[in-house]
Amino acid sequence: MQRFFIRCLSFYVFVALPILSLGQDNPALESARSTSAASISYQRDVWPIVRRHCRGCHSRTDAKGGLSMDSVADMLKGGDGGPSFTPGKADGNLLLEMISGDQPEMPKQQPALSAAKVEIIRKWILSGAKDDADLGDLTPKVVIPETYMFAPAVTSVAISPDGARIAAACRSELVLFPVEGDTPPERIPTECDLLTHVEFSPDGTRLVAVGGSPSSFGEVRFYDAKSGALIYSRRVGHDTLFRGAFSPDGTAVAVGGSDGAAHIVPFDQASAVKSFPLHSDWVFDVDWTPDGKMLVTGGRDKATKVSSVETGKLLRSVDMSAERVQTVSCTADFAFSSGLARTLSGFEFKIALSGIEVTGAGNGARPITNRAQYVRGMESQPGEVFTMATSLDRKLLAIGGAYREIRVYKTDDRTRITLIPNLPATVYSVSLNRDGTRLAAGGRDGQVLIYEIPSGTLIRSLVPVPVATTAGVTAS
Length: 476
Ligand code: HEC
Hints:
By secondary structure, this protein is α+β, with helices and mostly antiparallel strands. It has 8 helices and 30 strands. A hairpin with a 5-residue loop joins β25 and β26 (416-420). The structure holds heme C. The site of heme C has 24 residues, from α5.
């Protein structure tokens, strides 16, 4: 029963959540198809289309062409080309022009809206573009309770490079606290429905929190690690972003997207986000090689890929798992990936990438090196793997998942040095400090656990947010 429940929850967090949102505009669409112009509602019929197809590039935080479509008022105000439409008028209607015709300009570089959706927008504008939104701002409201009924799962945890501080993602909030002492955790609310990744920059001065809201936006939030002050946040795409990693030089964060791309989001606000469409399905995790030159990515298409940061081009698909890949990591010499298939393998770059020269031509072209030559087998894990992390010096690799253990390996000879048994719950996230002497873990039961490595001695455990009931959980 418990196992089943754990599966359900992890499924919800990592798999179902984005799915749930995908068809969200359909009921409205169906109802709108059969309604007359007069009864088209902005809130019920138009907003779901705008939110799904336009708002990723036209919001107040990211207004392409100067146009925000967060509210009817914003649309009437318009962008660089003036008001996007005049209510009740068919002519001189910029917005309608841009979504109609043989090759509509909007949504930019994406499939055109269906005729039914264009018709809904057209009818709404012609019938006077009435604004029946409850609030001016229709971003789904995130509610963060003062006290939770039950501890929210810790979806991601990070330990600072010096091992002194912890950052944890508890659903929509980021929580910061020192490992030692009894300073109460600092709670930092976000507008993300779910945070999926938190991490300290390699120099320990910055903190990033990644997440988003389904069918609405992905978000990357940079904080000052010491004060917890938000430096800036950037919205990327239309869906919750998955996990990733800080670049070794700390100037950017690479994260996975539900659009099959790895997105490199720079710390410099003025620089553009680079998106590399590498996978045919959601990218669950991204890591950088220590020289910052290559990305290792893995995801729902079961592939583990190595690509060039400079060109964004695929260098090699190093592995094809039988099941989805949840997490990837790497060192200068190896890429590691794991997931539902429970296997853990190291892929030796030197040999794997030497095989990118091919013999033959066209359809006959084949890599010289075959997979068996560069795969370094490691022991299988007892259950689905959700999380993997290296120490900053990349000498140790920690791994955890839907089984109550955390295992730590040396990356050079891939031998196990630590096994922490009998954990209270499924582990969603592990993090190691710079030299791999401390490990933080977070999971389904909402606890953050901090251990000494290699001894595996528990230093501290706590639920970092206030909860009304701690049934089954001992907070300290
Ligand atoms: C992938 C990004 C993207 C998406 C999605 C997108 N747009 Fe745009 N839009 C742009 C950019 C960029 C511009 C600026 C002009 C240009 O580069 O073509 C723009 C400009 C516009 C303008 C002109 C603004 C002005 O005042 O000059 C309108 C109107 C517009 N978009 C409507 C829409 C609508 C309606 C949708 C959804 C159906 C949509 N866009 C989706 C990127 C996007």
